[in-house]
Design brief:
6-stranded parallel β-sheet, 259 residues, alpha/beta, 7 helices, 6 strands, homodimer, Rossmann fold, 32% helix, NAD(P)H dehydrogenase (quinone) activity (chains A, B)
Chain lengths: 259, 259
Amino acid sequence: MKTLIVHAHPEPKSFNSALKDLAVSTLEGAGHEVRVSDLYAMRWKATVDAADYGPAASSPLRVARDSGRAFDTGTLTEDVRAEQEKLLWADTVIFQFPLWWFTMPAILKGWVDRVFTYHFAYGVGEHNETRYGDRYGEGTLAGRRALLSVTVGGAESHYSARGVNGPVDDLLFPIQHGILHYPGLEVLPPFVVYGSDRLTHDDFADVAKAWEQRLLTLGSTEPVPYRRQNHGDYEIPSLRLKDGLEPVGRTGFGLHVSG
Amino acid sequence: MKTLIVHAHPEPKSFNSALKDLAVSTLEGAGHEVRVSDLYAMRWKATVDAADYGPAASSPLRVARDSGRAFDTGTLTEDVRAEQEKLLWADTVIFQFPLWWFTMPAILKGWVDRVFTYHFAYGVGEHNETRYGDRYGEGTLAGRRALLSVTVGGAESHYSARGVNGPVDDLLFPIQHGILHYPGLEVLPPFVVYGSDRLTHDDFADVAKAWEQRLLTLGSTEPVPYRRQNHGDYEIPSLRLKDGLEPVGRTGFGLHVSG
């Protein structure tokens, strides 16, 4: 297995960093290759701007068009090209981050905004009567797997089906489905640690054991069965899910999970 | 009306910037006061790190605790204090941004991560048998209103109830409910422009007219009726919505909208 870990926490001694370190040692100990993008240590530039697209950037700037041209001509900045290369090298991508305001920290969002360029992660493939681009289950990153490892401050009940924050699977849907499944990644069920601000030493030992177990069984873990866009479930080009495919009573994001 | 517009697009000649400019001129023309935080123009620092909390930052860094201490002692960085002051000045806050990968651009997420500190936007109020902090409808920003003005590249059907991207109200829920309702803001229904990459000159005239209309009726627009956390709908401290409060068949994020 070739695993890329994308890590987003400012403190090397944090709980998140400990989970990242444990992933590296566990996977390497099992004979796998591991590369780490430690975004804070790399001083990752978080904001998309004209400097990303070099002297040929259009004025006014058109982010999608400019990023696609820079991708096509191999003129994206070196930091972005390096991350795209790592993604193509990997067969498994782990994202380690704290849930800040119910989504990823800005530095990680900025990694997505800059690395997932047009013609690499979107704007790929043909549009015709049966296909609407290579996306949602197809695309540049097809054949690879992704896993979110997330720490949250609140209690598990706050993120349950009736919890005030909303169900954790729904909170993570824009990331798991919208960012990862979109360019073709298969998404494994997330590893979520609740109440991470209040963990005791004993709690950490339990979490570490559970995390090691997840890491050592990545190869046999079934992905979330998100529907593929171009395999008959959706009308083209409205991309509405056809009627009658879902279990009775299912609505919202859950429609896009089959079975 | 005192309106703060938080704007996040790198190109001053973009469609997003035109909507921001139109908001300024329309509101000022109607006699309202307007302030703008143009995050790209301000070269807003997007990433939370120890530098945000000065020489007294703890080591290892504890983001919540350090941000609360810096808030309490008035030692947050000047850029963050200025944004908190603008939020307290405003009675209405408009966020103008393109939906990138189904959420806000990194620079705007970084505004949230850095400005919404502990003791300002979270970690406010008492916890007891009937209250779980001042949040979700109560808090520092209570009595103020917020509005998202968002452009998306895809077609409206892709964001409809059965659309492949997920319903737009669910995609925006982590922002509208999790970021804005949490510290007390009332959230108005969003202004969403679909297919923004393909707008013609005539389309823009229609959008501008609709946007002006929304701006001139902000004061009379009913907010999304998100439930208040401490008003009897939720069990404390599990924060699960009590049984039987929702219309039959409603699930997921929709549970937290009343009526």
